[in-house]
Protein backbone atom coordinates (compact mmCIF):
# COMPACT_ATOMS: atom_id res chain seq x y z
CA UNK A 1 0.00 0.00 0.00
CA UNK A 2 2.88 2.36 0.86
CA UNK A 3 5.44 1.05 -1.61
CA UNK A 4 5.73 4.46 -3.33
CA UNK A 5 6.25 6.33 -0.09
CA UNK A 6 9.98 6.70 0.72
CA UNK A 7 9.24 6.62 4.42
CA UNK A 8 7.75 3.15 4.12
CA UNK A 9 11.04 1.71 2.90
CA UNK A 10 13.27 3.06 5.61
CA UNK A 11 12.58 4.67 8.97
CA UNK A 12 10.81 2.36 11.41
CA UNK A 13 7.76 3.75 13.16
CA UNK A 14 8.12 3.91 16.94
CA UNK A 15 5.39 1.98 18.69
CA UNK A 16 4.48 2.42 22.33
CA UNK A 17 3.40 -0.25 24.72
CA UNK A 18 0.22 -1.80 23.30
CA UNK A 19 -3.07 -1.06 24.99
CA UNK A 20 -4.68 -3.96 26.80
CA UNK A 21 -7.84 -4.33 24.71
CA UNK A 22 -8.75 -7.59 26.43
CA UNK A 23 -8.79 -5.86 29.81
CA UNK A 24 -10.98 -3.06 28.47
CA UNK A 25 -13.39 -5.56 26.96
CA UNK A 26 -13.58 -7.46 30.24
CA UNK A 27 -14.15 -4.19 32.10
CA UNK A 28 -17.04 -3.30 29.79
CA UNK A 29 -18.62 -6.75 30.17
CA UNK A 30 -18.29 -6.55 33.96
CA UNK A 31 -19.90 -3.10 33.90
CA UNK A 32 -22.87 -4.41 31.89
CA UNK A 33 -23.32 -7.42 34.18
CA UNK A 34 -23.19 -5.19 37.24
CA UNK A 35 -25.70 -2.78 35.68
CA UNK A 36 -28.12 -5.58 34.86
CA UNK A 37 -27.87 -7.05 38.35
CA UNK A 38 -28.59 -3.67 39.94
CA UNK A 39 -31.54 -3.03 37.65
CA UNK A 40 -33.10 -6.42 38.43
CA UNK A 41 -32.74 -5.95 42.20
CA UNK A 42 -34.09 -2.39 42.00
CA UNK A 43 -37.06 -3.62 39.96
CA UNK A 44 -37.94 -6.24 42.58
CA UNK A 45 -37.74 -3.69 45.40
CA UNK A 46 -39.89 -1.25 43.39
CA UNK A 47 -42.55 -3.87 42.67
CA UNK A 48 -42.89 -4.76 46.35
CA UNK A 49 -43.38 -1.15 47.35
CA UNK A 50 -45.82 -0.39 44.53
CA UNK A 51 -48.21 -2.88 46.12
CA UNK A 52 -47.78 -1.11 49.47
CA UNK A 53 -48.34 2.33 47.92
CA UNK A 54 -51.43 1.35 45.94
CA UNK A 55 -53.07 -0.10 49.06
CA UNK A 56 -51.95 2.86 51.20
CA UNK A 57 -53.03 5.42 48.61
CA UNK A 58 -56.47 3.84 48.39
CA UNK A 59 -56.91 3.77 52.17
CA UNK A 60 -55.65 7.35 52.58
CA UNK A 61 -57.51 8.62 49.48
CA UNK A 62 -54.32 10.47 48.53
CA UNK A 63 -53.62 11.52 44.94
CA UNK A 64 -50.02 12.34 45.93
CA UNK A 65 -49.36 8.74 46.99
CA UNK A 66 -50.94 7.46 43.79
CA UNK A 67 -48.67 9.86 41.90
CA UNK A 68 -45.66 8.45 43.71
CA UNK A 69 -46.74 4.86 43.01
CA UNK A 70 -47.44 5.63 39.35
CA UNK A 71 -44.00 7.15 38.97
CA UNK A 72 -42.53 4.10 40.66
CA UNK A 73 -44.41 1.90 38.19
CA UNK A 74 -42.87 3.89 35.36
CA UNK A 75 -39.48 3.22 36.94
CA UNK A 76 -40.11 -0.53 36.76
CA UNK A 77 -41.05 -0.21 33.10
CA UNK A 78 -37.91 1.85 32.56
CA UNK A 79 -35.80 -0.75 34.36
CA UNK A 80 -37.32 -3.50 32.20
CA UNK A 81 -36.55 -1.54 29.03
CA UNK A 82 -33.00 -0.98 30.25
CA UNK A 83 -32.48 -4.67 31.02
CA UNK A 84 -33.81 -5.70 27.62
CA UNK A 85 -31.72 -3.08 25.82
CA UNK A 86 -28.59 -4.21 27.67
CA UNK A 87 -29.22 -7.76 26.48
CA UNK A 88 -29.84 -6.65 22.90
CA UNK A 89 -26.75 -4.42 22.89
CA UNK A 90 -24.58 -7.48 23.56
CA UNK A 91 -25.52 -9.04 20.25
CA UNK A 92 -22.72 -9.07 17.66
CA UNK A 93 -22.75 -6.79 14.64
CA UNK A 94 -24.26 -8.03 11.38
CA UNK A 95 -23.84 -7.06 7.74
CA UNK A 96 -26.99 -4.97 7.87
CA UNK A 97 -26.16 -3.51 11.32
CA UNK A 98 -22.43 -2.96 11.09
CA UNK A 99 -22.28 -1.12 14.43
CA UNK A 100 -24.32 -3.78 16.18
CA UNK A 101 -27.25 -3.05 18.49
CA UNK A 102 -25.59 -0.52 20.77
CA UNK A 103 -28.17 2.18 20.11
CA UNK A 104 -30.95 -0.06 21.42
CA UNK A 105 -29.79 1.14 24.84
CA UNK A 106 -30.41 4.75 23.80
CA UNK A 107 -33.78 3.97 22.21
CA UNK A 108 -34.89 2.06 25.31
CA UNK A 109 -33.98 4.96 27.58
CA UNK A 110 -35.73 7.42 25.26
CA UNK A 111 -38.94 5.35 25.31
CA UNK A 112 -38.78 5.23 29.10
CA UNK A 113 -38.47 9.02 29.38
CA UNK A 114 -41.35 9.65 26.96
CA UNK A 115 -43.54 7.21 28.91
CA UNK A 116 -42.79 9.06 32.15
CA UNK A 117 -43.74 12.37 30.57
CA UNK A 118 -47.05 10.96 29.36
CA UNK A 119 -47.79 9.58 32.81
CA UNK A 120 -46.90 12.91 34.39
CA UNK A 121 -49.37 14.77 32.16
CA UNK A 122 -52.14 12.38 33.22
CA UNK A 123 -51.30 12.82 36.92
CA UNK A 124 -51.39 16.61 36.59
CA UNK A 125 -54.84 16.24 35.08
CA UNK A 126 -55.97 14.06 38.00
CA UNK A 127 -54.53 16.54 40.51
CA UNK A 128 -56.50 19.34 38.87
CA UNK A 129 -59.71 17.31 39.22
CA UNK A 130 -58.90 16.71 42.90
CA UNK A 131 -58.57 20.45 43.51
CA UNK A 132 -61.98 21.00 41.94
CA UNK A 133 -63.49 18.23 44.08
CA UNK A 134 -64.03 20.00 47.41
CA UNK A 135 -65.70 17.00 49.06
CA UNK A 136 -62.73 14.63 48.80
CA UNK A 137 -61.16 13.76 52.17
CA UNK A 138 -57.56 12.69 52.82
CA UNK A 139 -56.68 10.54 55.86
CA UNK A 140 -53.49 12.18 57.11
CA UNK A 141 -52.03 9.52 59.43
CA UNK A 142 -52.24 6.74 56.80
CA UNK A 143 -50.78 9.06 54.19
CA UNK A 144 -47.90 9.92 56.54
CA UNK A 145 -47.16 6.27 57.32
CA UNK A 146 -47.03 5.29 53.64
CA UNK A 147 -44.94 8.36 52.77
CA UNK A 148 -42.30 7.50 55.38
CA UNK A 149 -42.18 3.91 54.09
CA UNK A 150 -41.74 5.28 50.59
CA UNK A 151 -38.78 7.39 51.66
CA UNK A 152 -37.13 4.33 53.22
CA UNK A 153 -37.63 2.28 50.06
CA UNK A 154 -36.16 5.07 47.94
CA UNK A 155 -33.04 5.17 50.10
CA UNK A 156 -32.68 1.40 49.67
CA UNK A 157 -32.97 1.75 45.90
CA UNK A 158 -30.39 4.53 45.78
CA UNK A 159 -27.99 2.37 47.76
CA UNK A 160 -28.53 -0.53 45.35
CA UNK A 161 -27.91 1.57 42.23
CA UNK A 162 -25.03 3.57 43.68
CA UNK A 163 -23.09 0.72 45.26
CA UNK A 164 -19.86 -0.40 43.62
CA UNK A 165 -19.38 2.37 41.06
CA UNK A 166 -19.64 5.69 42.82
CA UNK A 167 -19.81 7.65 39.58
CA UNK A 168 -22.97 8.60 37.76
CA UNK A 169 -22.19 11.09 35.01
CA UNK A 170 -24.32 11.80 32.00
CA UNK A 171 -22.35 11.44 28.85
CA UNK A 172 -19.65 9.35 30.47
CA UNK A 173 -17.94 6.94 28.15
CA UNK A 174 -16.55 3.45 28.13
CA UNK A 175 -15.52 3.11 24.56
CA UNK A 176 -15.56 -0.03 22.51
CA UNK A 177 -12.92 -2.43 23.67
CA UNK A 178 -12.01 -3.42 20.15
CA UNK A 179 -9.51 -1.44 18.14
CA UNK A 180 -11.00 -0.27 14.87
CA UNK A 181 -8.37 2.12 13.57
CA UNK A 182 -8.08 2.50 9.84
CA UNK A 183 -5.39 4.43 8.00
CA UNK A 184 -5.24 5.40 4.38
CA UNK A 185 -2.37 7.07 2.55
CA UNK A 186 -2.65 9.42 -0.40
CA UNK A 187 -0.29 11.81 -2.17
CA UNK A 188 -0.88 15.47 -2.94
CA UNK A 189 1.51 17.84 -4.72
CA UNK A 190 -0.33 21.00 -3.79
CA UNK A 191 0.46 22.76 -0.53
CA UNK A 192 -1.90 23.02 2.40
CA UNK A 193 -4.91 25.15 1.80
CA UNK A 194 -7.42 26.48 4.29
CA UNK A 195 -11.09 25.83 3.68
CA UNK A 196 -14.32 26.34 5.60
CA UNK A 197 -13.73 23.29 7.78
CA UNK A 198 -9.97 22.76 7.74
CA UNK A 199 -7.02 24.03 9.75
CA UNK A 200 -3.43 24.48 8.57
CA UNK A 201 -0.59 24.25 11.00
CA UNK A 202 2.03 27.00 10.97
CA UNK A 203 5.70 26.74 10.12
CA UNK A 204 6.58 25.71 13.65
CA UNK A 205 5.29 22.21 12.90
CA UNK A 206 8.28 21.60 10.66
CA UNK A 207 10.65 22.14 13.57
CA UNK A 208 9.47 19.04 15.45
CA UNK A 209 12.26 16.62 16.16
CA UNK A 210 12.26 13.32 14.32
CA UNK A 211 12.80 11.45 17.58
CA UNK A 212 10.03 13.19 19.50
CA UNK A 213 8.01 10.03 20.13
CA UNK A 214 11.05 7.94 21.02
CA UNK A 215 12.71 10.52 23.29
CA UNK A 216 9.54 11.02 25.32
CA UNK A 217 8.16 7.50 25.08
CA UNK A 218 8.62 6.49 28.70
CA UNK A 219 7.20 9.70 30.15
CA UNK A 220 4.36 9.80 27.61
CA UNK A 221 3.45 6.22 28.38
CA UNK A 222 3.35 6.93 32.10
CA UNK A 223 1.26 10.05 31.54
CA UNK A 224 -1.10 8.17 29.23
CA UNK A 225 -1.53 5.33 31.71
CA UNK A 226 -2.24 7.78 34.52
CA UNK A 227 -4.64 9.73 32.32
CA UNK A 228 -6.33 6.52 31.23
CA UNK A 229 -6.73 5.28 34.78
CA UNK A 230 -8.23 8.59 35.88
CA UNK A 231 -10.70 8.57 33.03
CA UNK A 232 -11.52 4.91 33.57
CA UNK A 233 -12.78 5.74 37.05
CA UNK A 234 -14.91 8.56 35.70
CA UNK A 235 -16.08 6.72 32.62
CA UNK A 236 -17.15 3.39 34.11
CA UNK A 237 -20.79 4.27 33.91
CA UNK A 238 -23.89 3.18 32.12
CA UNK A 239 -26.69 5.32 30.76
CA UNK A 240 -29.27 2.84 32.05
CA UNK A 241 -27.91 3.03 35.59
CA UNK A 242 -27.71 6.82 35.30
CA UNK A 243 -31.31 6.98 34.12
CA UNK A 244 -32.49 4.61 36.86
CA UNK A 245 -30.56 6.54 39.50
CA UNK A 246 -32.18 9.80 38.41
CA UNK A 247 -35.62 8.16 38.50
CA UNK A 248 -35.04 6.99 42.06
CA UNK A 249 -33.68 10.41 43.03
CA UNK A 250 -36.89 11.94 41.70
CA UNK A 251 -38.89 9.35 43.65
CA UNK A 252 -37.04 10.26 46.84
CA UNK A 253 -37.75 13.96 46.39
CA UNK A 254 -41.38 13.10 45.75
CA UNK A 255 -41.49 11.00 48.93
CA UNK A 256 -40.10 13.91 50.92
CA UNK A 257 -42.86 16.08 49.47
CA UNK A 258 -45.51 13.50 50.35
CA UNK A 259 -44.16 13.35 53.92
CA UNK A 260 -44.39 17.13 54.24
CA UNK A 261 -47.88 17.23 52.73
CA UNK A 262 -49.08 14.38 54.96
CA UNK A 263 -47.77 16.15 58.07
CA UNK A 264 -49.63 19.30 57.05
CA UNK A 265 -52.86 17.37 56.41
CA UNK A 266 -52.42 15.37 59.63
CA UNK A 267 -52.07 18.58 61.67
CA UNK A 268 -54.80 20.47 59.82
CA UNK A 269 -57.16 18.26 57.71
CA UNK A 270 -58.73 21.31 56.05
CA UNK A 271 -55.44 21.92 54.21
CA UNK A 272 -56.05 18.89 52.02
CA UNK A 273 -55.14 20.95 48.93
CA UNK A 274 -51.52 20.16 49.85
CA UNK A 275 -52.14 16.67 48.44
CA UNK A 276 -52.75 17.65 44.78
CA UNK A 277 -50.26 20.51 45.01
CA UNK A 278 -47.59 17.90 45.67
CA UNK A 279 -48.40 16.36 42.31
CA UNK A 280 -47.75 19.68 40.55
CA UNK A 281 -44.43 19.99 42.35
CA UNK A 282 -43.50 16.40 41.52
CA UNK A 283 -44.24 16.99 37.86
CA UNK A 284 -41.67 19.79 37.77
CA UNK A 285 -39.12 17.58 39.52
CA UNK A 286 -39.73 14.76 37.04
CA UNK A 287 -39.09 17.10 34.11
CA UNK A 288 -35.85 18.41 35.59
CA UNK A 289 -34.55 14.89 36.25
CA UNK A 290 -35.43 13.46 32.83
CA UNK A 291 -34.69 16.31 30.41
CA UNK A 292 -30.87 15.82 30.62
CA UNK A 293 -31.24 12.11 29.81
CA UNK A 294 -33.59 12.93 26.94
CA UNK A 295 -31.12 15.45 25.50
CA UNK A 296 -28.28 12.94 25.73
CA UNK A 297 -30.29 10.34 23.84
CA UNK A 298 -31.24 12.82 21.11
CA UNK A 299 -27.61 13.88 20.73
CA UNK A 300 -26.58 10.28 20.15
CA UNK A 301 -29.34 9.67 17.60
CA UNK A 302 -28.36 12.88 15.78
CA UNK A 303 -24.70 11.79 15.91
CA UNK A 304 -23.77 15.00 17.67
CA UNK A 305 -20.26 15.54 18.97
CA UNK A 306 -19.91 13.99 22.46
CA UNK A 307 -19.87 16.67 25.13
CA UNK A 308 -17.13 14.83 27.03
CA UNK A 309 -14.62 15.35 24.18
CA UNK A 310 -13.09 18.74 23.46
CA UNK A 311 -13.01 18.48 19.66
CA UNK A 312 -11.15 21.75 19.22
CA UNK A 313 -8.38 20.54 21.51
CA UNK A 314 -8.36 17.15 19.80
CA UNK A 315 -8.00 18.81 16.41
CA UNK A 316 -5.15 20.96 17.71
CA UNK A 317 -3.45 17.91 19.23
CA UNK A 318 -3.66 16.15 15.87
CA UNK A 319 -2.09 19.20 14.21
CA UNK A 320 0.71 19.04 16.77
CA UNK A 321 1.57 15.48 15.77
CA UNK A 322 4.78 14.95 13.82
CA UNK A 323 4.53 15.91 10.15
CA UNK A 324 0.84 16.84 10.18
CA UNK A 325 0.27 20.01 8.15
CA UNK A 326 -3.49 20.12 7.78
CA UNK A 327 -6.63 18.59 9.29
CA UNK A 328 -9.96 18.50 7.49
CA UNK A 329 -13.07 16.35 7.17
CA UNK A 330 -12.88 15.97 10.94
CA UNK A 331 -15.82 14.18 12.60
CA UNK A 332 -16.36 12.80 16.10
CA UNK A 333 -19.69 11.18 16.95
CA UNK A 334 -21.26 8.69 19.34
CA UNK A 335 -22.39 5.21 18.33
CA UNK A 336 -23.98 5.04 21.76
CA UNK A 337 -23.59 7.12 24.89
CA UNK A 338 -20.55 5.05 25.83
CA UNK A 339 -18.95 4.34 22.45
CA UNK A 340 -17.37 7.05 20.31
CA UNK A 341 -16.01 7.11 16.76
CA UNK A 342 -13.81 9.49 14.81
CA UNK A 343 -12.90 10.02 11.17
CA UNK A 344 -10.40 12.56 9.88
CA UNK A 345 -8.28 13.46 6.87
CA UNK A 346 -4.76 14.65 7.63
CA UNK A 347 -2.16 16.03 5.26
CA UNK A 348 1.39 15.06 6.11
CA UNK A 349 4.88 14.95 4.65
CA UNK A 350 5.63 11.85 6.77
CA UNK A 351 2.47 9.75 6.29
CA UNK A 352 3.33 6.63 8.25
CA UNK A 353 4.77 8.42 11.26
CA UNK A 354 1.84 10.82 11.35
CA UNK A 355 -0.66 7.97 11.10
CA UNK A 356 1.05 6.13 13.94
CA UNK A 357 1.21 9.16 16.21
CA UNK A 358 -2.36 10.35 15.53
CA UNK A 359 -3.73 6.85 16.12
CA UNK A 360 -1.79 6.59 19.37
CA UNK A 361 -3.04 10.03 20.46
CA UNK A 362 -6.67 9.06 19.87
CA UNK A 363 -6.31 5.78 21.74
CA UNK A 364 -4.36 6.88 24.78
CA UNK A 365 -5.45 10.44 25.46
CA UNK A 366 -9.00 10.50 24.11
CA UNK A 367 -9.95 6.82 24.39
CA UNK A 368 -11.12 6.74 20.77
CA UNK A 369 -10.71 3.15 19.61
CA UNK A 370 -12.87 3.26 16.49
CA UNK A 371 -11.04 5.67 14.21
CA UNK A 372 -10.65 6.12 10.48
CA UNK A 373 -7.66 8.27 9.55
CA UNK A 374 -7.02 9.11 5.90
CA UNK A 375 -3.50 10.37 5.29
CA UNK A 376 -2.96 12.55 2.23
CA UNK A 377 0.45 13.49 0.89
CA UNK A 378 1.88 14.86 -2.35
CA UNK A 379 1.08 13.29 -5.70
CA UNK A 380 -2.62 12.49 -5.39
CA UNK A 381 -4.53 15.34 -6.99
CA UNK A 382 -7.68 13.26 -7.27
CA UNK A 383 -8.23 12.96 -3.52
CA UNK A 384 -7.29 16.59 -2.94
CA UNK A 385 -9.92 17.69 -5.45
CA UNK A 386 -12.53 15.51 -3.75
CA UNK A 387 -11.70 16.87 -0.29
CA UNK A 388 -11.60 20.51 -1.38
CA UNK A 389 -14.98 20.24 -3.10
CA UNK A 390 -16.69 18.08 -0.43
CA UNK A 391 -17.59 15.44 -3.02
CA UNK A 392 -17.36 12.70 -0.39
CA UNK A 393 -20.24 14.01 1.72
Automatic annotation (TrEMBL):
<dbReference type="Pfam" id="PF16916">
    <property type="entry name" value="ZT_dimer"/>
</dbReference>
<keyword id="KW-0812">Transmembrane</keyword>
<feature type="transmembrane region" description="Helical">
    <location>
        <begin position="110"/>
        <end position="132"/>
    </location>
</feature>
<dbReference type="InterPro" id="IPR036837">
    <property type="entry name" value="Cation_efflux_CTD_sf"/>
</dbReference>
<keyword id="KW-0406">Ion transport</keyword>
<dbReference type="InterPro" id="IPR002524">
    <property type="entry name" value="Cation_efflux"/>
</dbReference>
<keyword id="KW-0862">Zinc</keyword>
<dbReference type="GO" id="GO:0005886">
    <property type="term" value="C:plasma membrane"/>
</dbReference>
<feature type="transmembrane region" description="Helical">
    <location>
        <begin position="138"/>
        <end position="156"/>
    </location>
</feature>
<dbReference type="InterPro" id="IPR027469">
    <property type="entry name" value="Cation_efflux_TMD_sf"/>
</dbReference>
<protein>
    <submittedName>
        <fullName>Zinc transporter of isoform 1</fullName>
    </submittedName>
</protein>
<feature type="region of interest" description="Disordered">
    <location>
        <begin position="172"/>
        <end position="205"/>
    </location>
</feature>
<keyword id="KW-0864">Zinc transport</keyword>
<feature type="transmembrane region" description="Helical">
    <location>
        <begin position="244"/>
        <end position="267"/>
    </location>
</feature>
<keyword id="KW-0813">Transport</keyword>
<dbReference type="Pfam" id="PF01545">
    <property type="entry name" value="Cation_efflux"/>
</dbReference>
<dbReference type="InterPro" id="IPR050681">
    <property type="entry name" value="CDF/SLC30A"/>
</dbReference>
<feature type="transmembrane region" description="Helical">
    <location>
        <begin position="39"/>
        <end position="60"/>
    </location>
</feature>
<feature type="compositionally biased region" description="Basic and acidic residues">
    <location>
        <begin position="172"/>
        <end position="192"/>
    </location>
</feature>
<keyword id="KW-1133">Transmembrane helix</keyword>
<dbReference type="GO" id="GO:0005385">
    <property type="term" value="F:zinc ion transmembrane transporter activity"/>
</dbReference>
<dbReference type="InterPro" id="IPR058533">
    <property type="entry name" value="Cation_efflux_TM"/>
</dbReference>
<feature type="transmembrane region" description="Helical">
    <location>
        <begin position="72"/>
        <end position="89"/>
    </location>
</feature>
<feature type="domain" description="Cation efflux protein cytoplasmic">
    <location>
        <begin position="306"/>
        <end position="377"/>
    </location>
</feature>
<feature type="domain" description="Cation efflux protein transmembrane">
    <location>
        <begin position="39"/>
        <end position="302"/>
    </location>
</feature>
<comment type="similarity">
    <text>Belongs to the cation diffusion facilitator (CDF) transporter (TC 2.A.4) family. SLC30A subfamily.</text>
</comment>
<dbReference type="InterPro" id="IPR027470">
    <property type="entry name" value="Cation_efflux_CTD"/>
</dbReference>
<keyword id="KW-0472">Membrane</keyword>
<feature type="transmembrane region" description="Helical">
    <location>
        <begin position="273"/>
        <end position="294"/>
    </location>
</feature>
